[in-house]
């Protein structure tokens, strides 16, 4: 412990310079996938080097992510997350999502952050956690940082009184 503190404080006096990892390792996003995926194909679609994908996803062998009913996490650099979501959406059969008003409800996308729970999100949009799970095809109530959820909330109604008689 003391040696670690010493190094952190006096590293420059000993000619040591910290090397920060590349930005692709610092700024990442994760999505849960249920079908099988080839790391080669993900690399081609997102433009992320295969070596980077392997470092970010060390649990997968032979450059292959197996299909799973409970889902597998796939992590990519944040810069390529939109391309990955587009590709995964097609493969997983996710329907395109629009944020326009429809039948008395607004639709929006929510990126899960630290401390977000289904109960908190349900209270925020006036729904139940089970509705949110259904809207997003979630099998469990477990959320992860960076997960994208589709939420719907009621359009506020404005009542304008008619003329007084």
Structural summary, described in words:
- The chain is an alpha+beta fold.
- The protein has two domains: 19-94, Membrane-bound Lytic Murein Transglycosylase D, Chain A (Roll), CATH 3.10.350; 97-156, LysM domain (Membrane-bound Lytic Murein Transglycosylase D, Chain A), CATH 3.10.350.
- Helix content is 33%, strand content 18%.
- The chain contains seven helices and six strands.
- It has helices at 2-10, 23-26, 39-46, 50-56, 81-92, 118-125, 129-135, and strands spanning 28-33, 37-38, 64-65, 72-77, 105-111, 148-154.
- The strands form three sheets. The chain has a two-stranded antiparallel ribbon with strand order 1-4. Strands 2-3 form a two-stranded antiparallel ribbon.
